[in-house]
Design a protein that fits this description.
This protein is an alpha/beta fold and 219 residues long. The chain is built from eight helices and eight strands; from the N terminus they run E-H-E-E-H-E-H-H-E-H-E-H-E-H-E-H. The N and C termini lie far apart (43 Å). Residues 124-219 form the Radical SAM core domain.
Length: 219
């Protein structure tokens, strides 16, 4: 029996690219295979952007194109546009699932056969550069920016979890690691709640630990 075919599409920032890879890795480990060029997919995952009106328009364009080229596929839409306008996204042709809240993603993936969403990635395509997401969310409320409204939960990844991911990526040949997040300067704020100031974890502490890891790489 042929494996179900997967196709992914990502719009927007480095955080989106990392999150798409995390979902892609989980699905491939759960029995999916990449759809080849010109081969119809059974499942399409679209990670959208809403930072500008152009981002919304490009997201809609990609969804419509995938629906046209993969008429029998389930289309799962995630990302910031899906969070900001879930009903608008759900009305687009071919869309079967909309992840309006990122906390819903593990449950939706479970319905697609993913037992556990991994805590990190093992690879990032065929290049020598990989993105490492260290935090999500922003506490600021800049009048010009929509992102705090679609990513309001400030969440820093545990330091040891990040270090383990960096080790895996370096072991797999990645020589440039790009730390990414919605507001990197907020790394550790949520982890530090209730801790004395002398025990606070900041981005500088994370960087100091990363550069002490063995291997030839740069951050």
């Amino acid at each position: 029996m042929p494996l179900p075919r997967l196709r992914t599409a990502t719009l927007g920032c480095k955080v989106n690219q990392y999150e798409t890879q995390l979902v892609r890795q989980a699905l491939l480990a759960s029995g999916y295979a990449e759809a080849g060029e010109g081969e119809p997919a059974d499942l399409c995952v679209v990670n959208t952007c809403t930072v500008t009106a152009e981002g919304d328009a490009k997201s809609r364009q990609v969804i419509r194109r995938l629906a046209r080229r993969n008429p029998r596929a389930r289309i799962l839409v995630m990302g910031c546009y899906a969070s900001r306008a879930p009903e608008e996204v759900a009305a687009l042709p071919g869309v079967s699932e909309v992840v309006s809240d990122r906390r819903e993603l593990p449950g939706l993936l479970a319905c697609l056969g993913v037992a556990n969403l991994p805590t990190g990635i093992d690879s990032f395509g065929t290049r020598h550069r990989a993105y490492v997401k260290v935090q999500d969310g922003c506490l600021l409320r800049c009048s010009f920016c929509i992102i705090p409204h679609v990513r309001p939960q400030l969440t820093s990844r545990p330091l040891e979890q990040i270090l383990e991911e960096v080790r895996r990526l370096v072991d797999h040949g990645y020589r440039e690691l790009v730390l990414t997040g919605i507001h990197l300067g907020h790394y550790g704020v949520d982890l530090n709640r209730g801790r004395p100031k002398s025990e606070w974890i900041r981005l500088s502490h994370l960087l100091a630990r990363i550069v002490r890891l063995p291997g030839t790489f740069r951050v």
